[in-house]
Write a structure and sequence with these properties.
The chain has 262 residues and is mainly alpha-helical. It has helices at 3-37, 64-87, 118-129, 134-171, 175-190, 192-198, 205-219, 239-244, 247-259; strands spanning 55-56, 61-62, 225-227, 230-232. It has two domains: 65-163, no CATH class; 172-259, no CATH class.
Length: 262
Amino acid sequence: MPPEQTNETQTQTTSTQQSNEGGAQPQTQQGASTEAQNGGSTKTERPDWLSEQFWDPEAGQIKGSDLKAHLDELAAFKAGEDSRRAAAPEKPDGYQLQLPADLELPEGMSFEFDENDPMVGLGRQIAHAVGLDQAGFENLMLKPFIEARVAAVNAENARITELTEANDKALGPKAADRRAAVENFIAAKLGVEYADVFKHILPVAKAVEGFERLMRLSSSGGMPGFTQTGRSGGSTLSEDEYQAMSPAQRLAHARRAANGSR
Protein backbone atom coordinates (compact mmCIF):
# COMPACT_ATOMS: atom_id res chain seq x y z
CA MET A 1 0.00 0.00 0.00
CA PRO A 2 1.38 3.44 -0.90
CA PRO A 3 2.44 5.63 2.00
CA GLU A 4 -0.01 8.39 1.04
CA GLN A 5 -3.03 6.07 1.40
CA THR A 6 -1.82 4.77 4.74
CA ASN A 7 -1.58 8.25 6.15
CA GLU A 8 -5.03 9.15 4.77
CA THR A 9 -6.58 6.03 6.27
CA GLN A 10 -5.06 6.75 9.65
CA THR A 11 -6.33 10.31 9.46
CA GLN A 12 -9.91 9.11 8.70
CA THR A 13 -9.79 6.53 11.49
CA THR A 14 -8.61 9.09 13.98
CA SER A 15 -11.31 11.52 12.84
CA THR A 16 -14.01 8.84 13.18
CA GLN A 17 -12.88 7.92 16.68
CA GLN A 18 -12.90 11.55 17.72
CA SER A 19 -16.35 11.99 16.21
CA ASN A 20 -17.69 8.97 18.08
CA GLU A 21 -16.14 10.10 21.31
CA GLY A 22 -17.59 13.58 20.83
CA GLY A 23 -21.10 12.13 20.24
CA ALA A 24 -21.00 9.94 23.33
CA GLN A 25 -20.16 12.81 25.60
CA PRO A 26 -23.57 14.66 25.26
CA GLN A 27 -25.49 11.40 25.92
CA THR A 28 -23.60 10.87 29.15
CA GLN A 29 -24.31 14.45 30.29
CA GLN A 30 -28.03 14.14 29.45
CA GLY A 31 -28.36 10.92 31.46
CA ALA A 32 -26.65 12.50 34.42
CA SER A 33 -28.97 15.52 34.22
CA THR A 34 -32.12 13.31 34.22
CA GLU A 35 -30.86 11.32 37.16
CA ALA A 36 -30.12 14.54 39.04
CA GLN A 37 -33.66 15.79 38.38
CA ASN A 38 -35.15 12.55 39.74
CA GLY A 39 -32.98 12.71 42.82
CA GLY A 40 -31.22 9.55 41.93
CA SER A 41 -34.38 7.39 42.52
CA THR A 42 -38.00 6.93 41.31
CA LYS A 43 -40.82 7.41 43.95
CA THR A 44 -43.89 5.14 44.11
CA GLU A 45 -47.17 6.85 43.22
CA ARG A 46 -50.28 6.62 45.51
CA PRO A 47 -52.86 4.13 44.18
CA ASP A 48 -56.04 5.78 42.93
CA TRP A 49 -58.24 3.69 45.23
CA LEU A 50 -56.42 4.80 48.39
CA SER A 51 -57.43 7.95 50.27
CA GLU A 52 -54.69 10.52 50.82
CA GLN A 53 -55.06 10.22 54.59
CA PHE A 54 -53.66 6.69 54.43
CA TRP A 55 -50.69 7.48 52.16
CA ASP A 56 -47.21 8.61 53.24
CA PRO A 57 -45.85 10.66 50.30
CA GLU A 58 -42.36 10.97 51.77
CA ALA A 59 -41.90 7.25 52.26
CA GLY A 60 -43.99 6.38 49.21
CA GLN A 61 -45.99 3.75 51.06
CA ILE A 62 -49.35 3.04 52.74
CA LYS A 63 -49.89 4.05 56.38
CA GLY A 64 -50.70 0.53 57.45
CA SER A 65 -51.60 1.23 61.08
CA ASP A 66 -53.97 4.08 60.19
CA LEU A 67 -55.69 2.04 57.49
CA LYS A 68 -56.11 -0.94 59.82
CA ALA A 69 -57.61 1.23 62.57
CA HIS A 70 -60.09 2.68 60.08
CA LEU A 71 -61.14 -0.73 58.81
CA ASP A 72 -61.54 -2.01 62.38
CA GLU A 73 -63.79 0.95 63.16
CA LEU A 74 -65.96 0.26 60.12
CA ALA A 75 -66.22 -3.41 61.04
CA ALA A 76 -67.28 -2.56 64.60
CA PHE A 77 -69.90 -0.11 63.32
CA LYS A 78 -71.34 -2.68 60.93
CA ALA A 79 -71.47 -5.30 63.67
CA GLY A 80 -73.35 -2.88 65.90
CA GLU A 81 -75.83 -2.03 63.14
CA ASP A 82 -76.42 -5.71 62.41
CA SER A 83 -77.01 -6.39 66.11
CA ARG A 84 -79.41 -3.45 66.46
CA ARG A 85 -81.44 -4.46 63.42
CA ALA A 86 -81.60 -8.02 64.67
CA ALA A 87 -83.16 -6.71 67.91
CA ALA A 88 -85.90 -4.77 66.07
CA PRO A 89 -89.41 -6.28 66.24
CA GLU A 90 -90.74 -8.13 63.23
CA LYS A 91 -93.67 -5.74 62.80
CA PRO A 92 -94.20 -2.03 63.61
CA ASP A 93 -96.83 -2.78 66.25
CA GLY A 94 -94.21 -4.80 68.13
CA TYR A 95 -92.81 -1.61 69.64
CA GLN A 96 -94.00 -1.10 73.22
CA LEU A 97 -95.40 2.29 74.26
CA GLN A 98 -93.47 2.92 77.45
CA LEU A 99 -91.60 5.87 78.89
CA PRO A 100 -87.81 5.91 78.49
CA ALA A 101 -86.07 5.01 81.74
CA ASP A 102 -84.10 8.28 81.86
CA LEU A 103 -87.11 10.54 81.24
CA GLU A 104 -88.25 12.57 84.25
CA LEU A 105 -91.71 14.12 84.18
CA PRO A 106 -92.52 17.26 86.18
CA GLU A 107 -93.83 16.62 89.68
CA GLY A 108 -97.50 15.73 89.69
CA MET A 109 -97.62 15.07 85.96
CA SER A 110 -98.42 11.71 84.39
CA PHE A 111 -98.46 10.62 80.77
CA GLU A 112 -100.37 7.89 78.99
CA PHE A 113 -100.08 6.92 75.34
CA ASP A 114 -103.09 6.57 73.10
CA GLU A 115 -102.82 3.51 70.88
CA ASN A 116 -105.23 5.15 68.43
CA ASP A 117 -103.17 8.32 68.06
CA PRO A 118 -102.06 8.56 64.38
CA MET A 119 -98.70 9.95 65.50
CA VAL A 120 -98.03 6.78 67.47
CA GLY A 121 -98.65 4.64 64.40
CA LEU A 122 -96.46 6.87 62.25
CA GLY A 123 -93.64 6.70 64.78
CA ARG A 124 -93.79 2.92 64.80
CA GLN A 125 -93.70 2.77 61.00
CA ILE A 126 -90.64 5.03 60.80
CA ALA A 127 -88.82 3.18 63.58
CA HIS A 128 -89.39 -0.16 61.88
CA ALA A 129 -88.30 1.18 58.48
CA VAL A 130 -84.91 2.31 59.83
CA GLY A 131 -84.48 -0.80 61.98
CA LEU A 132 -84.62 0.73 65.46
CA ASP A 133 -84.70 -1.55 68.48
CA GLN A 134 -87.00 -0.87 71.46
CA ALA A 135 -84.50 1.45 73.16
CA GLY A 136 -84.00 3.40 69.95
CA PHE A 137 -87.76 3.70 69.48
CA GLU A 138 -88.17 5.09 72.99
CA ASN A 139 -85.32 7.61 72.73
CA LEU A 140 -85.77 8.76 69.13
CA MET A 141 -89.54 8.54 68.74
CA LEU A 142 -91.33 8.59 72.10
CA LYS A 143 -89.02 10.81 74.13
CA PRO A 144 -89.14 13.86 71.80
CA PHE A 145 -92.92 13.45 71.53
CA ILE A 146 -93.34 13.41 75.32
CA GLU A 147 -90.91 16.29 75.84
CA ALA A 148 -92.90 18.39 73.37
CA ARG A 149 -96.11 17.66 75.29
CA VAL A 150 -94.44 18.50 78.60
CA ALA A 151 -93.14 21.78 77.16
CA ALA A 152 -96.66 22.66 75.98
CA VAL A 153 -98.15 21.89 79.41
CA ASN A 154 -95.46 23.93 81.15
CA ALA A 155 -96.11 26.86 78.84
CA GLU A 156 -99.85 26.67 79.51
CA ASN A 157 -99.28 26.45 83.27
CA ALA A 158 -96.99 29.45 83.11
CA ARG A 159 -99.67 31.39 81.23
CA ILE A 160 -102.32 30.42 83.78
CA THR A 161 -100.03 31.40 86.65
CA GLU A 162 -99.41 34.77 85.05
CA LEU A 163 -103.14 35.38 84.57
CA THR A 164 -103.91 34.22 88.11
CA GLU A 165 -101.36 36.60 89.58
CA ALA A 166 -102.79 39.46 87.53
CA ASN A 167 -106.35 38.64 88.68
CA ASP A 168 -105.24 38.25 92.30
CA LYS A 169 -103.68 41.68 92.11
CA ALA A 170 -106.94 43.08 90.72
CA LEU A 171 -108.94 41.52 93.60
CA GLY A 172 -106.56 42.81 96.25
CA PRO A 173 -104.91 41.14 99.25
CA LYS A 174 -108.15 39.35 100.23
CA ALA A 175 -108.59 37.69 96.85
CA ALA A 176 -108.78 34.20 98.38
CA ASP A 177 -111.47 35.30 100.87
CA ARG A 178 -113.53 36.92 98.14
CA ARG A 179 -113.43 33.77 96.02
CA ALA A 180 -114.37 31.62 99.02
CA ALA A 181 -117.35 33.87 99.74
CA VAL A 182 -118.55 33.54 96.15
CA GLU A 183 -118.19 29.75 96.29
CA ASN A 184 -120.25 29.61 99.49
CA PHE A 185 -122.92 31.80 97.92
CA ILE A 186 -123.20 29.64 94.80
CA ALA A 187 -123.30 26.41 96.84
CA ALA A 188 -126.05 27.77 99.10
CA LYS A 189 -128.19 29.23 96.35
CA LEU A 190 -127.68 26.72 93.55
CA GLY A 191 -126.21 23.62 95.15
CA VAL A 192 -122.73 22.15 95.48
CA GLU A 193 -122.87 20.59 92.03
CA TYR A 194 -123.25 24.04 90.47
CA ALA A 195 -120.49 25.46 92.63
CA ASP A 196 -118.12 22.98 91.00
CA VAL A 197 -119.29 24.12 87.56
CA PHE A 198 -118.60 27.79 88.25
CA LYS A 199 -115.41 27.19 90.21
CA HIS A 200 -113.19 27.16 87.14
CA ILE A 201 -114.08 30.78 86.27
CA LEU A 202 -113.49 32.20 89.75
CA PRO A 203 -109.76 32.81 89.17
CA VAL A 204 -110.92 35.60 86.84
CA ALA A 205 -111.35 38.84 88.77
CA LYS A 206 -114.33 40.00 86.72
CA ALA A 207 -116.15 36.74 87.43
CA VAL A 208 -115.70 37.23 91.19
CA GLU A 209 -116.84 40.84 90.96
CA GLY A 210 -119.88 39.81 88.93
CA PHE A 211 -120.95 37.23 91.52
CA GLU A 212 -120.38 39.75 94.29
CA ARG A 213 -122.89 42.06 92.63
CA LEU A 214 -125.39 39.22 92.51
CA MET A 215 -124.73 38.60 96.20
CA ARG A 216 -125.44 42.24 97.03
CA LEU A 217 -128.64 42.19 95.02
CA SER A 218 -129.74 39.03 96.77
CA SER A 219 -129.01 40.31 100.27
CA SER A 220 -130.63 43.70 99.76
CA GLY A 221 -134.12 42.57 98.94
CA GLY A 222 -133.92 39.73 96.54
CA MET A 223 -133.16 39.65 92.88
CA PRO A 224 -135.26 42.23 91.05
CA GLY A 225 -137.58 41.04 88.36
CA PHE A 226 -137.56 41.99 84.73
CA THR A 227 -140.17 43.80 82.67
CA GLN A 228 -140.29 44.93 79.10
CA THR A 229 -138.76 48.21 80.22
CA GLY A 230 -135.93 46.61 82.18
CA ARG A 231 -135.13 45.65 85.77
CA SER A 232 -137.54 46.73 88.46
CA GLY A 233 -138.19 46.33 92.15
CA GLY A 234 -135.90 45.73 95.12
CA SER A 235 -133.30 47.94 96.72
CA THR A 236 -129.59 47.34 96.19
CA LEU A 237 -126.34 47.83 98.05
CA SER A 238 -124.37 50.42 96.13
CA GLU A 239 -120.92 49.75 94.77
CA ASP A 240 -119.43 52.44 96.98
CA GLU A 241 -121.01 50.91 100.08
CA TYR A 242 -119.66 47.49 99.23
CA GLN A 243 -116.17 48.78 98.49
CA ALA A 244 -116.16 50.58 101.84
CA MET A 245 -116.76 47.31 103.71
CA SER A 246 -113.90 45.46 105.38
CA PRO A 247 -113.05 41.89 104.29
CA ALA A 248 -114.82 40.57 107.40
CA GLN A 249 -117.92 42.60 106.60
CA ARG A 250 -117.89 41.36 103.01
CA LEU A 251 -117.63 37.76 104.21
CA ALA A 252 -120.51 38.27 106.64
CA HIS A 253 -122.45 39.94 103.87
CA ALA A 254 -121.86 36.94 101.60
CA ARG A 255 -122.99 34.53 104.30
CA ARG A 256 -126.18 36.50 104.88
CA ALA A 257 -126.79 36.48 101.15
CA ALA A 258 -126.24 32.73 101.04
CA ASN A 259 -128.76 32.24 103.87
CA GLY A 260 -131.26 34.55 102.24
CA SER A 261 -131.22 37.08 105.11
CA ARG A 262 -130.63 40.81 104.90
